[in-house]
Structures are given as structure tokens and as C-alpha cells.
Amino acid sequence: MKLWESASIGTVTLRNRTVRSATNEHLAERDGRMTKALIECYEELASHEVGLIITGHYAVDALARVDAGQPYLDERTDRALLQEAAERVHAKGGKLVIQLNHGGLNASEKVNGRPAQGPMELSEADRSLLLQKYAAAARLAKEAGFDGVQVHMAHGYLLSSYLNPKENVRGDAYGGSVENRFRFPGEVLKAVRKEWGPEGMVLVKVNCDAVEDLHRVLELCEEAGADAAEVSGLGFAHQEVKGEPFYLKEALAAGEGIRIPLILVGGIVSEKGAEQVLEAGIPFVSFSRSLICEPDFIEKLKGGAEKSKCIHCNNCFRVYRERYRRCVLHRQEIPQLRKTFGE
Ligand SMILES: Cc1cc2nc3c(=O)[nH]c(=O)nc-3n(C[C@H](O)[C@H](O)[C@H](O)COP(=O)(O)O)c2cc1C
User: Fold this and answer.
1) How many whole angstroms separate alpha carbon 299 and alpha carbon 282?
2) Cβ neighbours of residue 97 under 8 Å, at least 6 residues apart?
């Protein structure tokens, strides 16, 4: 079956076409420092056949975190831990990409002690500082032996807001047309690409539903140096899971003529769903909630399991903080979560 064939993105060859979509593990120290528990989470996924693991979002600006469990990635990050993460995933046959983000309008003032900032608040000086932070984070990941980085441009965070004409109503060169709205995300992408040179994989994650012209956004991502684009949607948590991929139609229409490979995420919960994506011509399939529920879901699929046990209740967004568990179907607490969120 095609899902289990090896395939490449950029200069990296994956053992199969499955991707763990970035999923905030909420396992950082309360102050945002990286932990061993994060490494164990990536390693666990790698030991169960996931081809490519994309970490949950790391904040490139430590004052733009979304919650207390989210790690930052900057010069203070323990390089030995980063290196260990890459090594332990590689030892299990997986590949590891770190997701870079800025919380934008969703950053938590309570956590950061600074009001959230979106495209309308950032000055030219803020943008240029931020470009340096993205570049520095990309460099750290490269030096630590990661296989690549993903620039998060989806789900309502800063770069997603730049692309969204409802949230970016700037009257200057950074707002208006799709090319203008892409200008800052594009500068970020180019800065990250420059750090990586022709090596590894530089990915983006984009919304299909809040950018007005996904096809043009994908073209611009390609021009700015992305090796692949993961297609998601702003409203993924409110979509009904019916065993069919959420955004297949949108991705296929927008992907026409795009040369970089697409990765589809959202509502793919079975082998049938994954095959539907591959047969339609999208070469990589990404999973999130099914892997929160069952970190060995990909191995189970390979072994013939029909579908995920995830019931898509979306309580995974809450149980981390309230019950120190990942999923309502899990009985056991994760001690690290109590440490992060417990009083
Ligand atoms: C608890 C939770 C945390 C998430 N964290 C991130 C994140 O850090 N970065 C990101 O791009 N998407 C994040 N997502 C979205 C997923 O990557 C994915 O796009 C979405 O859940 C749809 O895929 P699914 O139907 O397979 O769950 C998160 C989703 C959940 C449920």
C-alpha cells in the first residue's frame, strides 16, 4: 500500500508517508523551558512507525507563548536537549521537524505579562527583530540535528493573521492584496530557508479557509523556498469527523500546478481516509488527535486496524490542564502535566 512506501521531502527521505501533525504537547516547564518529557513524547511516536514527527509549536519569541505548557526556542534553550530529541527520534527510524510559531493575537497575556500582538500592532522594528528570532530558532534546530523546521502560518496565530484579510487590514505594503498579506510570512520563510540553505526540509502549514486565495499562497510559499506545504483550516476543531478528510477538495483545487508536495491534515482517522488522500494525488497524510488518543495509532494502522479510537470530543484541548491527561480515554495522569499546570 502506498502509505507505507518511503518518500522524500526536500533532501530528507521518510520511511513512509505518515506525518504527526504539530500538536502542542503542553510538556514544557511553566516558564517555557524545554523538557525531557517532550523528547519522550517524540520518541514514543517514532517508535511506533510515524514517518515524520512535527513537534508542537515552539515560540520563537518567549513573550508570545499561547499557554504555560508551550516551550520557547531561543538562545537560552538547552542545546543538549534539542540534540537528544533529534538523536532519539533518529534511533527509532523517524525524522523530526520543529514547528516555529508566534502566538500573535492568541498569545496569553497572563503567561507572558505582555498584551497579545497581531499584524496591526507590530511595528517595522518589531518585524525585523522577529525575523531575527525566527532565523535564530531555525539555526538552533539545524545545529541540533533536526531534519527541518515548519513555519506555522495557520490556526489564527501571528502569520495566519497576516494572511487573513479579516485580521490584517493594514493599509501599507503588508496588507491588502494576497501578495502584500504574504509579505511578512514570506520574509519569515525566506529567513528560515536561508539558515537551512538547500539542506533538510523547510515546511509551512497554511489554512485553506482564511486566506482568500490558497492557490496563490501556495505559489508564494514555493517561491519563498518551502519544500512542502501542509494544508489545514482555521476551523478544524469545529468540523464534523465523518471518516473523510476535511480539506481534501480545497487542497486539490488549490494544489493544481503547485510543484511542492502537499501534506493534508484534518479528520483523517482510518486507512481508508489516508488512501483517499494518496489516491487523489496528495503524497503525505498527517494526523493529530488520533495520535493524542493512541500514540501507536500508525503502527496499529499498519497492522490492519481499521480506524482510530479517538471520539473527537475535543476534550484534549482541556484535559491537559484540568486533569493532567492527554485524552479523556486515557486513565493515567502524566506527572509532567501536573507539574506544568498544577498549583
Ligand atoms: C490538543 C491539540 C494541540 C494542537 N497543537 C497544534 C500545534 O501546536 N500546532 C499546529 O499547527 N496545530 C496544532 N493542532 C492542530 C493539529 O495539528 C491538526 O491540524 C488538527 O487537530 C486536525 O487534525 P486531526 O483531525 O487529525 O486532529 C493541535 C490540535 C490539538 C487537538
Assistant:
1) 21
2) 52, 53, 54, 55, 146, 147, 148, 149, 150, 201, 203
CA of 57 to the centre of ligand 1 (A): 10
Q: Which helix (H) or strand (E) holds 159?
A: helix 158-163
Answer whether 288 contacts ligand 1 (Cβ < 6 A): yes
User: Using an 8 Å Cβ cutoff, are 150 and 54 in contact?
Assistant: yes
HSE-up of residue 162 (Cα within 13 Å, Cβ side): 25
In ligand 1, which atom is closest to the CA atom of 205? 11
Which amino acid, residue 230? E
The pLDDT confidence band at residue 212, using thresholds 50, 70 and 90, is: very high
99 lines ligand 1 (CB under 6 A): yes
Q: What are phi and psi of 44, to 5 degrees?
A: -60, -45
pLDDT digits (tens, 9 = 90+) for 48-58: 999 999 999 99
Q: Helix, strand, coil proportions of the chain in percent (round to 5)? A: 40, 15, 45
pLDDT, position 342? 82
Which amino acid would we find at residue 298?
Answer: I
